[in-house]
# Entry
Amino acid sequence: MHQSTRKKELFTSAMTNLMQDKFGISIDLLNEILNADPDDRMALLARGSVYLKMNRAEDAIKDFSEALRLNPNHPKGYHLRGLAQEILGDDDAALKDFTRAIELDSDYGAAYYSRATLLAKMGQEDAASEDMKIITQLSNLNIETFANENNVWRSRQLQVESALETELHR
# Structure
């Protein structure tokens, strides 16, 4: 079996096991990927996410930090590491990571949400309120985009149905 095919199968299986709360199996599969390629950023992020689900925040931070060392411009890595930092009670580090995620992707709604809840917990209600306004704007934009894409799809579907009907009546 080709190496990349095996890696994809391992990763898919690891994610399936994660979704089924089979954390140990997921970790084992991700470890197999990382033993073959220690610089696999997706496997590092995934294993860190499994560690988060297992309440092993320190291990999660190690994996997220390594993934960010390999790609310092990955907003999800900062967001995930921020979640782990917050679990450990390091609110300042969490805030810094959430902010960095937003700097890298200004449309990253989950990072705004995490930052808003952290800011509220830290007593910075005005700043939290600003983030909530942005979340609302992003949500409205996503709903509008979905509606527009759905309307385009429905319009094309109606065109196809009309063309088929015309062909059937010939």
Summary: Residues 125-168 form the longest helix (44 residues).
